[in-house]
Design brief:
Length: about 180
C-alpha cells in the first residue's frame, strides 16, 4: 500500500473514531443537531424498541434522553474495518447510565446498561467536503443493572463538585466540537 493510501486510511479511521466520540457527547449534552449529524438521515436504525430511519430515530432518542436529568454514555475503543474508500464496518461496546427524579427533593434513581453497537459507516459528499457518518446501526443490550440512588444537584460540603441536572439543550458548559 502506498504512503498516500496508508495516510488516507489513518485519516478515515480517525474521522470514524471522532464520529463515535461526537455521538456520545451530543447525546449527553442534548445537542439535537449534533446528534442528527452523526447519522445519514436515511440510515437504518434498530434499537429493538425502535426500527426505522435515523431521521425518525433522533427525535425519539432525544426525547428519551430529556426524560432523565442525568445521562452518561461511554463507548469503548472502536474496531473498524474499512471495506472500501467510502464504506466501513465498526463495532464497539458501550456503557450508559440514566438517572431520573420523580419529584423535587427526591433522589435520582436509575440504571446502568451495557451493550454493543454494530455499525456501518459511509463517507458521502457534503457541502463542506466528504464526511463519514453512521449509515446503519444495530444496538444489542447485553446487561442492565440498577444503580444506587444519587443525590440531587445541590452543592454538598463533603463532596463539593458541580453536578449537572441537564434536561434541555444549550447548557453554558457545552462546547460544540
Amino acid at each position: 500500500m502506498s504512503m498516500e493510501a496508508q495516510l488516507q486510511e489513518l485519516l478515515d479511521r480517525q474521522a470514524i473514531n471522532d464520529l463515535i466520540a461526537r455521538y456520545s457527547r451530543t447525546l449527553d449534552w442534548l445537542d439535537d443537531a449534533g446528534q442528527a449529524g452523526c447519522y445519514w438521515p436515511d440510515a437504518a436504525i434498530d434499537y429493538g424498541f425502535f426500527k426505522g430511519t435515523a431521521a425518525q430515530f433522533v427525535p425519539v432518542v432525544m426525547q428519551v434522553e430529556r426524560s432523565t436529568g442525568r445521562r452518561w454514555h461511554l463507548l469503548s475503543s472502536l474496531a473498524v474495518k474499512l471495506t472500501s474508500a467510502t464504506t466501513a464496518e465498526g463495532e464497539c461496546y458501550g456503557i450508559a447510565c440514566g438517572f431520573r427524579r420523580e419529584g423535587e427533593g427526591e433522589p435520582y434513581r436509575g440504571n446502568m446498561y451495557g451493550g454493543r453497537y454494530l455499525d456501518t459507516f459511509e463517507k458521502r459528499p457534503t457541502e463542506s467536503g466528504a464526511e463519514w457518518r453512521i449509515a446503519s446501526r444495530r444496538y444489542i443490550m447485553d446487561w442492565t443493572m440498577p444503580m444506587p440512588d444519587q443525590p440531587d444537584a445541590s452543592p454538598r460540603a463533603e463532596f463539593p463538585l458541580p453536578m449537572l441536572d441537564l434536561r434541555e439543550s444549550g447548557h453554558p458548559d457545552y462546547r460544540p466540537m
